[in-house]
Amino acid sequence: MTNAITYRTRWADMDPNGHMRHSAYADYAADQRVVLLAQWGFDLKSFAQLRLGPILFREETKFIKEIHIGEEIQVDSQLASVSEDGSRWTIVHRICKADGRVAATVTVDGAWLDLDRRKLTVPPAELVTAFGSMPRYETPAG
To answer: What is the reported pTM?
Structure first.
């Protein structure tokens, strides 16, 4: 998995049925995005200086395999689509079990917000280039 981050699930991630709660999947996907942006040189301090922030319009999780407490998981990002100017994008996160089986996908549609004007904006060229380096999502066959 390229750009994947490995996590170990925690007690706080679990639901009463003994498997990972629905919102924990979104939390791991969001954390992976923040880490990836920071690796590209766009950490939270940089976004504050740029007066720019990512926003989501849609978040959808597809649950495939159960994840339990203490399991090692890997979360990656793949670019499903991006507008020509980089202002809007769709990312698919794969959350995989230690053996590589996909346990869930989290798909997010987002854009960039000018924090002063409170309007959508075009990101800096360096961020557009970085997004372009993300692996492309290919819809699984079947």
So the answer is: 0.94
